[in-house]
Amino acid sequence: MKNMPKISRIMCATILLTLIASCNNEEKNNTKSSMDTNESTHTILINAFEVPQGKLEASIKYWEDCRDFLKNQPGYISTKLHQSIKEGAKFELVNVAVWENPKAFAEASQKMAKVIGASPVEGLKANPSLYTIIRQ
């Protein structure tokens, strides 16, 4: 009986994460349900942006252009842009994207570089890296 509250919290967290994953899949217009994929095998892109002062809106617009291109590429699953709530944070924007695998991300990025090119926002610095989930 001591473990009952812990199991309850774990079940609630699992349900919440499942709901969030299903919303991400709707965003992609994918016909698979979120239960058809194994999220632990996906590749996670975390890209922290150093945004120059006065360039926030232009940086968000550039991110939106990149998102709109990438979401139509093979292997794309979802992406979300986060903004720091701490004034003066080094990384004002952080993008977290989910890809089927590193190869899909690399191929899509190469295509995007040819189509969209470098950032039109002077001084915008991206710090991308790919990750895999090792604990849940």
What's a quick, concise take on this entry?
The chain is α+β, with helices and mostly antiparallel strands and 136 residues long. The chain has three helices and four strands, in the order H-E-H-E-E-H-E. The two termini are 24 Å apart.
Task: Give your account of this protein's structure.
Helix content is 40%, strand content 23%. It is built from 3 helices and 4 strands. It is globular and about 35 Å long. The relative contact order is 0.21.
Average pLDDT over all residues = 79
In terms of structural class, how would the helical and strand content be classed?
A: alpha+beta
H/E series, N to C?
Answer: HEHEEHE
**First-to-last CA distance:** 24 Å
Shape: globular
User: Could you estimate the helical fraction of the residues in percent?
Assistant: 25-40%
